[in-house]
Amino acid sequence: MKPKSLLPNRPLTVAILGSSGAVGKELLALLEERSFPVGKLILLASHRSAGDIQSFCGTEVKVEETTKDSFKNVDLILASAGSSISRKWKDTIQSSGALMIDNSSAFRMDENVPLIVPEVNPSDAIKHKGVISNPNCTTILLALVLSPLTRHIPIKRIVVSTYQSASGAGAMAMEELEKLSQEVLDGKTPKSKVLPYSLAFNLFLHNSPLQSNNYCEEEMKMVNETRKILGDPELSLTATCVRVPVLRAHSESVNIEFTKPFPVKEAYEILEASPGVEILEDLENNRFPMPQDVTGRDPISVGRIRQDISNPNALELWLCGDQIRKGAALNAVQIAELLLPKNYE
C-alpha cells in the first residue's frame, strides 16, 4: 500500500514503537500536551515491557509486544527503539501504508528519506515515501542556529564541540549516573555497566565507533546530517563530541566562519527572532545557558555570541537544548504536525 503524503483528516491511530524508553515516554507526554489528534493509541515495545501500563489523557494503555500485525490500520508510527528495530519493521510498516517517523540513525542518510528539522526544512517532509528520519540530537540543536544565520550570510566553516548528557544514551544511562555518583560520594569505586566508563564526576570522548578517519560515528553524524538538512553537501564542518556528567540536556560550543564579517548585534537579532530559539544570558553576572535552564523545555537557549578574536569573519556562541524533547521527541511530533491536513488548508 502506497503511503499518502499527508496524514488522514480525522483522529489518527498512532503507535509508539519503543514506548518504554526515555524518548518513547516523552513522545507520549507530548502527544497529550500538544493535543495531537489521536483517536487510538498503541504502545509497542519488546516482550520485556509488554503488559506495562502507561497513562494517556486520563486513561490507562497497556504496552503490547511488537509483532508483524502491530501496524495494521495504523496511520502514524513514532519509532524510537533503535536502528536495528527500525530496520526490522520498516518493510512491514511501509506495506501497511502507515507513515513512520524514525528517531534512529537507520535511514537518515538514505537519499529517499527526508531528514527534517521543521523550523529549517519543512517543505522536504512532503516528499516522503513512508519514512521520515528525525536527525541526531546534537544535529537538531546545531541546525536551528545555523539555518537562520546562513540565510543572512553564507557559512564557510563550522567547528563544534558537544557536551552530551547521559540522556543521550537512554534512561538506563541516566539511572546509572545517579547511582554511580552516589557511590563516589560514599567513597566507593564506581563500575559502569551501561556506558563503557563511569560518568560519575567524569567525562570521556563519545564512545560511538571510531571511523577510518579517526572521527567517531557521533561526530560524523553531525557532519553528514547537517549537510543534508541545510542542503549543502560541501559544507565544511568538524566536530568533537564529549559525554559529560549531566543527566539531561546537551550543550554545544560553536565557532562559525562566514564568507564575510557578521555583526554580533545582527546575529543576536536574527536568532532572537528565530523559531525554536531563545537568547538567555546575563553579561554582568557572567550567566549563560546551562542544561538546567532547558531541561523539560522546548526552546534551545543561545548565549555569549561574540566576535572570534582570531578570525574577523567568525562568530563564537554557546547553546543548550533538551536532548529528549527538541533533540528527539518534540522534533518527531512537530514533523507529524507538518503533515496534518489542517496545515495545508
**How would the global form be characterised?**
globular
Low-confidence stretches: none
Q: Termini distance?
A: 25 Å
**Count of discrete domains:** 2
What are the secondary-structure elements, in order, as H or E?
Answer: EHEEEEHEEHEHEHEEHEHEEH
Protein name: Aspartate-semialdehyde dehydrogenase
GO molecular function: aspartate-semialdehyde dehydrogenase activity; NAD binding; NADP binding; protein dimerization activity
Enzyme class: oxidoreductase
Pfam families: Semialdhyde_dh (PF01118), Semialdhyde_dhC (PF02774)
Write the layout of secondary structure elements.
Layout: E1 12-17, H1 22-33, E2 38-45, E3 53-56, E4 59-65, E5 76-79, H2 83-96, E6 99-102, E7 131-133, H3 137-150, E8 155-164, H4 171-185, E9 204-205, H5 217-230, E10 236-243, E11 250-258, H6 264-272, E12 277-279, H7 291-294, E13 300-307, E14 314-321, H8 325-338
Parallel strand pairs: 1-2, 1-5, 2-4, 5-6, 6-7, 8-10, 12-13
Antiparallel strand pairs: 3-4, 8-11, 9-10, 11-14, 13-14
Helix pairs in contact: 1-8, 3-5, 3-8
Tell me what you see in this structure.
Catalyzes the NADPH-dependent formation of L-aspartate-semialdehyde (L-ASA) by the reductive dephosphorylation of L-aspartyl-4-phosphate. This is Aspartate-semialdehyde dehydrogenase. It comes from Prochlorococcus marinus (strain NATL2A). The protein has helices at 22-33, 83-96, 137-150, 171-185, 217-230, 264-272, 291-294, 325-338, and strands spanning 12-17, 38-45, 53-56, 59-65, 76-79, 99-102, 131-133, 155-164, 204-205, 236-243, 250-258, 277-279, 300-307, 314-321. The chain is an alpha/beta fold and 345 residues long. It folds into 2 domains: 12-135 and 328-344, NAD(P)-binding Rossmann-like Domain (Rossmann fold, 3-Layer(aba) Sandwich); 139-323, Dihydrodipicolinate Reductase, domain 2, CATH 3.30.360. A 7-stranded mixed beta sheet has the order 3-4-2-1-5-6-7, with helices on both faces. Strands 9-10-8-11-14-13-12 form a 7-stranded mixed beta sheet. The two termini are 25 Å apart. The model has no long low-confidence stretch (mean pLDDT 95).
